[in-house]
Amino acid sequence: MKFEYITGGGITTPSGFSAGVAEAGIKKAGRYDLALVASRVPAAAAGVFTTNRFSAAPVRVSAEHLKKGKAHGFVVNSGCANACTGEAGFSDARTMAAAAADVIGCQAREFLVASTGVIGIPLPMEKVLKGIKKAGENLSPSAGKLAAQAIMTTDTFPKEVAVGFELDGKKVTMGAMAKGSGMIHPNMATLLGFITTDAAITPQCLQKALTSANDGSFNMVSVDGDTSTNDSLIVLANGLAGNRTIDNENNGDFRTFVQALNVVCVELAKMIARDGEGATKLMEVQVVNAPSLEDARKAARSIAASNLVKAALFGEDANWGRIVCALGYSGAEFDPDLVDVCLGDLAVAKNGGGLMFDEGRALKILQEKTVVIKVDLKSGPAAATAWGCDLTYDYVKINGAYRT
Predict the structure, then answer these.
(1) Cα 367 to Cα 379: distance, rounded to the nearest angstrom
(2) CA 399 to each of CA 154, 182, 402, 404: distance values in angstroms, whole numbers, following the listed order
(3) Residues belonging to the active site
(4) Residue extents of the structural domains in the chain
(5) Any idea which architecture 4-274 has in CATH?
(6) Which tens digits make up the pLDDT trace of 343-401?
(7) Dist. CA 35–CA 112, nearest whole Å
(8) 250, 164, 239, 166: which is closest to 200 by C-alpha?
(9) At a CB cut-off of 8 Å and minimum separation 6, what does 400 contact?
(10) Which fold has domain 282-400?
(11) Which terminus of the chain is more solvent-facing, meaning fewer CB atoms within 10 Å of its CB: N or C?
């Protein structure tokens, strides 16, 4: 299936979606810190959320609102996570949903909520509510880029993508935005991510598609080993493309839809990894010929998450021993005496043992902005890819003064 990347596309590229932003004053003055995205008509909705036991109030409120499988939009603030804030935090999250719904003209349960920022700090609700009103008054299909900026925290660039494809002979568009730089690790979605599409699909099929796409993308990213309290990945599908509604996961249109969702989620996941706090390199770990998909994913995630591998990547040290060490404790099934390891196209280990290799060539590979580590388990048919980044001095600097 052909998917066309839409240059400059994002969350409002699909038909019927608009965004509004505000400088609510939650963060430093002069920065957008609140975004509201709404569909012109009610949309099928699905989501996946953090597995952290300290899940934030907006996570729980959104999960509750999603039980009906429909939503009109979502509102997001940065600068304050509204996590570990007790009953007041739940009240604030519900109030955000109600305020956004009031601006759009729908019921509060038709709006989803997300927050990101410092944990344990109450939301400045007077500022938030003024920001929601302002954002709602300035909704526009052209404000998608501003919305992607408004949800950023320590991100160094906004993360957006959009693709076009066909379903049932109709042109369909899917757009997305995400934020994430620190507290990134598998166990759900590892970020805030929002996807919109004008495809027609039932909530049940949409949820299955999102869960599948998430498993092979955001759940395969690690920056620092921390799973946030606020991780949320939400998708809205308003049906305005006019295709026959996808209501069966066994048909070709569903498979095409999942493929498109995979494309979007993988692109965002790679942006998240590349923009890891303090990162200078994107690490892509490809595990092939594993006994099962689960084994391949375990192996790839373990290597991508290893602090020693990440530090070696930063130091441009071809220390393949750290790679096999992380593989060895991954929990994946394989025969250690069969494993091959390559840095880019340079073989550094074969059949579980080291090879003589050109250190100069290895250094050039490790100096690239994207470094591919390929591990061949030679134990089966399955493969998986995980993404991470190097561990730098700046990561410690950023997180040593996060609140200031």
Answers:
(1) 31
(2) 10, 9, 5, 10
(3) 190
(4) 4-274, 282-400
(5) 4-Layer Sandwich (3.60)
(6) 999 999 999 999 999 999 999 999 999 999 999 999 999 999 999 888 887 777 766 76
(7) 12
(8) 239
(9) none
(10) Ubiquitin-like (UB roll) (3.10.20)
(11) C
